[in-house]
Amino acid sequence: MPKSREHGQGALYWVESRKMWRAVVDVGFDPETGTRLQKARMSKTKDGAVKKLNLMLRERDSMGMVLDRSTRVSDLAQAWLDDVAGRTKPKTLTGYRSNLKASILPVLGHRIAADLTPSTCDACTPPSENAAPETPPSRARIAHW
């Protein structure tokens, strides 16, 4: 009998029609219909599918969602602004919007969020406060939070 996974740990199975392995993770339920929502990835090898399954589980556990291949940084930034809008002061929210618009979105806004690495994020921050005199110190300090 094959080993089974515990509840909430995803599924891994062979898809004969595509000759590929499929990794599937539950990400919640549709609030309107109550149907189960799933994210899936395909791989030619079982080891590749296991790696993709583990990556999806880590994303779900750490961020609360599995990043798909179409979510851009600008989409996540807008969702974050919408989320914090109800619990921050208007001036703070204006500062967040300004910093995103000036420092982050021009460099990273078009990128797919799942493909970000620390080196791509470093592209939107100056190397040091002394190296970029056109960047106000407060902006450089906020960019390195």
What can you tell me about this protein's structure?
- The termini are far apart.
- The model has no long low-confidence stretch (mean pLDDT 82).
- A hairpin with a 6-residue loop joins strand 2 and strand 3.
- The chain is an alpha+beta fold.
- 43% of the residues lie in helices and 16% in strands.
- A three-stranded antiparallel β-sheet has the order 1-2-3, covered by helices on one side.
- The radius of gyration is 20 Å and the shape is elongated.
- Helix 2 runs antiparallel to helix 3.
- The protein has five helices and three strands.
Secondary structure blueprint with pairings:
Blueprint: E1 11-15, E2 20-29, E3 36-43, H1 46-63, H2 73-85, H3 90-108, H4 118-122, H5 137-143
Antiparallel strand pairs: 1-2, 2-3
Mean pLDDT: 82
User: Using only CA atoms, what is the Rg?
Assistant: 20 Å
Looking at the structure, what is the overall shape?
elongated
Largest sheet: 3 strands, antiparallel
- Estimate percent helicity: 40-55%
Estimated structural class: alpha+beta
Number of strands: 3
Question: Can you count the helices?
Answer: 5
Strand content: 15-25%
Order of helices and strands: EEEHHHHH
Distance between the termini: 51 Å
For the largest sheet, list the strands in their spatial order.
Answer: 1-2-3
The residue ranges in which pLDDT falls below 50 over 5 or more consecutive positions are none
